Amino acid sequence: MKLLVTGGAGFIGSNFIHYWIEKHPEDKIVNLDALTYAGNLENLKSIENNPNYKFVKADISDKEKINEIISDEKPDAIVHYAAESHVDRSILGPEAFVRTNVLGTFNLLEAARQNGNIRFHHVSTDEVFGSLGPNDAPFNETTPYDPRSPYSASKASSDHLVRAYFHTFGLPITISNCSNNYGFYQFPEKLIPLFVTNLIEDKKIPLYGDGMNVRDWLYVEDHSGAVDLILQKGKIGETYCIGGNCEKTNKEITYKILEFMGKDEKMIEFVADRKGHDLRYSIDSSKIQHELGWTPKTSFEDGMKKTIQWYKENESWWKKIKSGEYQNYYEKNYKDR
Ligand code: NAD
Ligand code: DAU
After folding, report:
1. pLDDT < 70: residue spans in the chain
2. Domains of the chain, start order
3. What is the pTM assigned to this prediction?
4. 72: CA distance to ligand 2 center in Å?
5. What is the tens place of the pLDDT at every residue in 15-36?
6. Which ligand 1 atom lies nearest to the CA of residue 186?
7. Ordered strands of the 239-242 beta sheet
8. Any catalytic annotation for residue 330?
């Protein structure tokens, strides 16, 4: 099997590639990524010379290039992770979100359709369903869409396009809507890696609003396991919701990180709230659990301990990001390949 993974130099995509190479070493992987600020090929350093792995630098908003790559590579399946992924950035500059998440997904769907109806798995988010009140039932596959940020609106739009290609053209698609991931290689702009790395550097940690917003946390390796099952056994045309069954307020997360790192609550700095800040996300994963036998394996305690340890042991990885040096990695190591 040959997989073309988009966004494989990002957080979840690179974890997925590591997972896949370990689980299915006979398979071939093409990692297609534009290397935006969020793409870091150092995430894949340990496998960059694996003969079954190949990196291709390309922007999914470039329709001709994408069609050319897919027609040359002829993958058996496309696993689509590439996206602009950070809500705060979508508030500051929404345009890139429309270009990559909407237009880029459209270009990939067209290329998949024009090159023999290639199997297409689209990785999406629980944020497309909107914001829950404290006592609302969790989101599931039948929850109506109600995106509220430019990020979630662009992801919702891409989900609709993917479903439209199934109904209209018979493209063999599946979609997954996942809750908040955490783990190794997460860019230190997101809550957990930002707070952990700031605390290692003895810097304050900025908690938005009153810290009472709720997210449902999933260890990234468990997300990769779910996407693997969907690719192997998922029903074409279907959507699967993936969650950690682990709802926590941001305050709870913050106090857990402080506890594990032996730091004082004086390190918290309450700052202005995010505009349009969704109150609560929660996922009901019973469909993927019952139909495909998936279940999250990593407890929050274990996942957080492993994650904090990883950031402590890999200071040079995130320090290069904070200094901007990571953006030279491609030029230094890939130029002559
Ligand atoms: P990330 O920001 O860490 O990585 C995104 C990757 O996509 C980067 O490598 C970047 O270079 C690449 N990319 C961006 N624009 C591109 C373009 N135009 N062409 C090609 N490549 C491009 O994101 P992530 O957190 O790993 O998220 C991956 C996917 O999972 C996204 O689709 C996101 O919506 C979804 N998701 C994320 C989470 C989460 O908690 N992080 C949860 C649910 C779903
Ligand atoms: O729910 C899935 C989504 O989870 C994904 O689709 C997104 O790609 C991913 O970025 C994530 O979105 P969130 O906005 O939930 O993640 P973030 O880490 O940015 O924020 C988590 C919560 O923490 C949110 O309520 C805002 C808050 N926060 C975040 C940051 C960066 C803070 O309080 N302080 C911060 O500095």
Report:
1. none
2. 2-187+217-246+277-299 (3.40.50.720)
3. 0.98
4. 37
5. 999 999 999 999 999 999 999 9
6. 3
7. 53-57, 28-33, 2-6, 77-80, 119-125, 173-178, 239-242
8. no
